[in-house]
Amino acid sequence: MFIARQPIFDKNLSVFGYELLFRMNEKSRGFDGINAQSATAAVIIGLYELGLENIVEDKMAFINFDEVFIHSDALELIKPNRMIVEMLENIAIDSQLLQRLDHIKEKGYQIALDDFNEKFDDYPLMPYANIIKYDLMLTPLESIAEEIPKVVKQGKILLAEKVETQEVYQQASAMGFQLFQGYFFSKPSIAGRSCNKSPTKIQYFQLISELKKEDPSFVRLAEMIELDAVLSYRILRMASVRSHKKTVKSIQSVLAFMGLNQIERWLSTLMLQDLSQDKPLELMKLSMIRSYFAELIAKELEMNESDCQNASLMGLFSALDGILDQPIEEALADIIIPTAISDALVFHKGPLALIYELILAYEKGDWDFTNKIITEMGVECEKIAKDYQKSILWMHEMMKAMV
């Protein structure tokens, strides 16, 4: 089963929930006919077995249903305080559906209307809906300016989908939208703004540059790390968590124990944590998931160790433009990194470009393009799906170690 997640934010840019995008296998193109109900049941059961908390953490799961899916008994495997039932826009409405929605509401489930493009006053499902989703690519804000006050007055929660810029997010928020979904959070809000190069940031760049030398020095790295007491503490603590020991004696012993590749990963992750302090936490989580996902994909392609590490760093830095509010080429200018990384992120070419394209397609749930790339790579679809799940779990592990 393919499954991807897209964050849904509140006005404070805290994650309210995740919309789950899924496909049963590489050959499916959706769900239709007699098999629809059993397909949905398989998805719900699959999420139940994986552990919903491993996919959406402690947030709400938004899951799509149509007039056939909604009648599956498997729906109730997921508790109402963990799932929002999202009704697709092309749903056929009949008395049987309305009875089922009455039952679901009585059980405590919330209902969202996806890609809403109807008249608010007379739409039959409006009395059942808690959340109204507007696709702002299909329904511009200007076209619904008169409808929005009516929806708000009824106590409905407005969710703006396909929010791609900071300006649209701010406009939607001012109009009364409470939830937001899109990639606005991962893009520069002010293109070309220079990065505030604090001593800590410069130190990170120097450390990564040292690690990328042909013959990096453990002694030099330890000396640079020890200049910052907070950084030293954080690295020692992370090493202690990873080694399951209470303490690690010195920075040099950490370097020797973990090896340069792991130290590079940790330093890069800590750097992103510091740089993204005024950004949504989800942006850092996205970077970490991409980092591990890219490395696992590289391993599936049987790349050598150096290329796998480059893939990891490429994934980690792929959202650096949004974190630093700079175009990606400017964000990478201060770091000495292999050409393959900048080629993939800036020019979308080179040996890592296809991995980057696969990651972006998977995140968006563009399963046709995902399948095309996987086929071109010659890897098994099921392995890529499992690699994505492993990447989310690895992100959780790293976040715990960084607390």
UniProtKB/TrEMBL annotation:
What PROSITE patterns would the database entry show?
EAL, HDOD
Locate the coiled-coil region(s) and give their ranges.
Answer: none
Question: Where does the HDOD domain start and stop, copy by copy?
Answer: 197-383
User: What Gene3D superfamilies does the entry give?
Assistant: EAL domain, Hypothetical protein af1432
* EAL domain residues: 1-202
Top-level taxon of origin: Bacteria
Q: What's the protein called, per UniProt?
A: EAL domain-containing protein
Organism expressing this protein natively: Acetobacterium wieringae
Which lineage do the record's taxonomy fields give for this organism? Bacteria, Bacillati, Bacillota, Clostridia, Eubacteriales
